[in-house]
Structure to design on (594 residues):
C-alpha cells in the first residue's frame, strides 16, 4: 500500500479495537497497551530499515497507481521526523499502560493514539500537499477525540471543542491556499510545485496562497495570535496525550511550514521568512511571559511549548543550513524535554491527583526519581549547558549571528533567560517543605511510569553530552529539505 | 488559468468570509460547526472551479481531492457534533458563552 512502516501502523490502528475487545473479554486490560507498544516497536524496526535504504538512495518514492495508494516521497527528513514520532509514541504507550488503568475505553484510547501517530508519520512521508492534508486530518481528528477523552468532564469537552473549531478553521484555510497553488501550477506534488514556482516571479495569487497557508498551519503550530487553543487543550488532555500533543503534534506544523517554504514558496521566501521572524519573536515572548502567571502545572508547561515553538520558528526564519539544523535538532530535543516534563507532571497528577502547583509543594521529597527526571527536563528546557536544549539553542543563536541577525539571536538568549524564572519555580515547588497531607502520604510513582521517564531523561543528558551523531543525521535531513531549491536554482 | 474565473473567486471568497464571520460572531455551537463546514466548502468549490484549466478538459485530480475532502469534513463534523452532545449533557445549553471553565 504505502511503505512498510506506515502500513504496519495503520494495520495496528485498525486491528486495535478488535484486540482490545478480546482483551477486555478475558479481563486483561494490560494487553491493549502491550499490543500498541509492540506495534510501535515493530514500526521502529521497519523505520530503521527504511533509514538504511534512504541513506543510500537519498529519496524513495512510491508510485501513485492503484486504489489504495498515495504519493509518498520519503527522504532523510521524513525518516528523522518519523523516528521522533514513533519513539515518543512508544514511550507514551508504555507509560499509558499503567496511567490509563483506571479509565474506561482503553482500547479506543490506544486506537486513537496509534491513529494519531500514523497520521503524523504519513505527514512527514507525504510527497504531495494533498496526501499531507489527508494525513493531517487523520492526526487532527484523532487528537480532538483524545483531548475530549475524559468525556464526563466539562473542561475536556470545552477544550476539545475550542481546539476543534480553531484547528478545523486552520485546516480549511490551508485547503483554500492549496487550491490556489493547484490552480496556478496544476499539480500539488512538492517537486512540481518547486519547479513551477521556483523561478517564476511571484504574482499576487502566490502571496495570497502563502498567507492562507501560513495562517492555516500557524493555528496548529501555535504561532502567537493563533495560539489560544493550545493551553486549554494541552492541559485538559490526559497527561500522556499532553506529552504527545506538546512534544510532537505542534511540531508537525513546524515541519509543514519548513517543507512548503522550501518548495512552493521559494520565490516569496524572503518576504515569508521576514514575517515569520517577527512572529517568532512575538511567539517566544508571549510563550515565556504567560507561564509566569499560571498555577496549573500542565497549563504552564503548555505555554512554555509556545515559547519553544518560537525558538524553532526563529531557526526557520533565518533560513540558512545551520539555522535549520538547529531547528530540527530542537524539534527532537523538544520532543524529549517536553515529553519528559509532561510525563513527570502526569506521574505527580497520578499520585496526588492535583495539577495545582501550590498543592504539590515538596512532592520531590516523596518522589525523588520523578523529581530528578523532571528537574533534568526543566533545566534542558531552560537551556542549561550540559543538556540537549542548550546545543540546539546554541546552534540557532550562532546561525542568527552568522546571518547578521544579531537582534534575533539576542532575543532567543534573553527569552531563555526569562524562561528560567518559571522553570526554576517548578523545581522550587518540588523541594519546598511538605505542607499538605496528600503529599505527605504520597509514594514514588509505579515502575511502569518511571521506565519511560528515566529513559527519556537519560537521552536528554546523552544528546547534551554527545550530540555529534544526531547532528550528522539532522544535517542530512536539512540537505534533503534544501534539495528542491538546489535543483531549481541550479 | 487563474485569471478568467473571477466570478468563481468572488463566490469562494464570499463563502470563506461567511464562514469566518460565522465562527467569529455566532454563539450557538451547532452554528459554529456550520461555519466550519462553509469554510471547507469554499475550499472545495475553489478546487472544482480551478479544475478546468485547459479548455475542454477537466482535471480528475481536483475532483478526487474534493471527494476525499468531503469525507474528511464529514469526519470532523461527526466528532464536533459528538462533542456538542456531551457539552449539552454537561451544561444543558448550546451557548458557548456558558462554557466558562477555561480562561485565556
Amino acid at each position: 500500500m504505502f511503505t512498510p512502516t506506515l502500513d504496519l501502523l495503520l494495520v495496528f490502528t485498525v486491528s486495535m479495537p478488535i484486540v482490545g475487545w478480546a482483551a477486555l473479554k478475558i479481563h486483561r486490560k494490560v494487553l491493549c497497551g502491550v499490543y500498541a507498544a509492540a506495534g510501535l516497536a515493530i514500526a521502529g524496526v521497519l523505520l530503521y530499515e527504511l533509514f538504511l535504504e534512504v541513506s543510500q538512495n537519498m529519496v524513495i518514492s512510491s508510485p501513485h497507481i492503484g486504489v489504495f495508494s498515495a504519493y509518498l516521497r520519503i527522504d532523510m527528513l521524513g525518516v528523522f521526523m518519523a523516528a521522533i514520532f514513533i519513539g515518543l509514541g512508544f514511550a507514551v504507550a508504555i507509560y499509558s499502560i499503567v496511567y490509563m488503568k483506571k479509565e474506561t475505553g482503553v482500547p479506543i484510547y490506544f486506537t486513537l493514539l496509534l491513529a494519531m501517530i500514523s497520521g503524523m508519520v504519513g505527514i512527514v512521508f507525504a510527497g504531495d500537499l494533498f496526501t499531507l492534508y489527508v494525513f493531517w486530518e487523520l492526526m487532527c481528528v484523532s487528537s480532538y477525540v483524545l483531548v475530549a477523552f475524559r468525556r464526563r468532564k466539562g473542561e475536556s469537552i470545552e477544550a476539545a471543542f475550542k481546539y476543534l473549531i480553531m484547528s478545523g478553521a486552520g485546516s480549511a484555510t490551508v485547503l483554500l491556499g492549496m487550491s490556489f497553488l493547484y490552480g496556478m501550477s496544476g499539480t500539488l506534488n512538492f517537486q512540481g510545485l518547486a519547479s513551477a514556482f521556483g523561478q517564476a516571479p511571484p504574482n499576487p495569487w502566490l502571496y495570497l496562497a502563502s498567507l492562507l497557508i501560513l495562517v492555516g498551519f500557524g493555528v496548529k503550530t501555535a504561532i502567537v495570535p493563533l495560539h489560544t487553543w493550545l493551553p486549554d487543550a494541552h492541559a485538559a488532555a490526559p497527561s500522556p496525550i499532553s506529552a504527545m500533543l506538546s512534544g510532537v503534534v505542534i511540531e508537525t506544523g513546524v515541519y509543514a511550514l519548513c517543507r512548503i517554504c522550501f518548495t512552493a514558496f521559494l520565490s516569496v521566501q524572503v518576504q515569508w521568512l521576514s514575517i515569520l521572524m517577527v512572529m517568532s519573536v512575538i511567539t517566544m515572548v508571549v510563550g515565556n511571559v504567560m507561564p509566569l502567571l499560571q498555577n496549573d502545572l500542565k497549563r504552564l508547561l503548555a505555554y512554555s511549548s509556545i515559547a519553544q515553538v518560537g525558538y524553532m520558528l526563529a531557526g526557520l526564519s533565518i533560513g540558512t543550513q545551520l539555522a535549520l539544523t538547529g531547528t530540527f535538532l530542537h524539534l527532537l530535543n523538544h520532543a524529549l524535554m517536553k515529553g519528559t516534563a509532561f510525563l513527570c507532571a502526569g506521574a505527580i497528577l497520578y499520585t496526588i491527583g492535583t495539577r495545582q502547583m501550590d498543592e504539590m509543594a515538596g512532592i520531590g521529597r516523596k518522589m525523588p526519581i520523578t523529581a530528578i527526571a523532571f528537574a533534568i527536563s526543566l533545566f534542558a528546557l531552560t537551556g542549561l549547558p550540559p543538556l540537549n536544549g542548550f546545543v540546539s539553542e546554541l546552534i540557532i543563536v550562532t546561525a542568527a549571528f552568522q546571518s547578521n541577525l544579531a537582534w534575533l539571536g539576542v532575543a532567543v538568549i534573553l527569552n531563555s533567560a526569562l524562561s528560567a524564572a518559571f522553570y526554576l519555580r517548578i523545581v522550587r515547588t518540588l523541594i519546598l517543605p511538605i505542607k499538605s497531607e496528600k503529599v505527605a502520604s504520597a509514594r514514588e510513582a509505579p515502575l511502569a511510569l518511571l521506565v519511560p521517564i528515566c529513559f527519556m531523561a537519560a537521552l536528554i543528558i546523552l544528546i547534551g553530552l554527545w550530540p555529534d551523531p544526531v547532528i550528522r543525521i539532522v544535517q542530512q535531513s536539512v540537505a534533503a529539505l534544501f534539495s528542491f531549491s538546489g535543483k531549481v536554482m541550479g | 488559468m487563474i485569471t478568467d474565473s473571477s466570478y468563481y473567486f468572488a463566490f469562494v471568497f464570499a463563502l470563506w468570509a461567511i464562514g469566518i464571520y460565522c465562527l467569529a460572531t455566532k454563539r450557538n455551537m451547532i452554528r459554529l460547526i456550520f461555519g466550519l463546514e462553509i469554510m471547507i466548502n469554499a475550499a472545495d468549490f475553489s478546487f472544482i472551479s480551478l479544475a478546468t484549466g485547459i479548455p475542454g478538459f477537466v482535471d480528475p485530480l481536483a475532483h478526487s481531492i474534493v471527494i476525499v475532502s468531503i469525507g474528511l469534513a464529514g469526519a470532523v463534523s461527526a466528532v464536533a457534533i459528538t462533542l456538542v452532545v456531551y457539552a449539552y449533557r454537561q451544561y444543558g445549553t448550546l451557548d458557548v458563552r456558558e462554557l466558562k471553565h477555561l480562561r485565556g
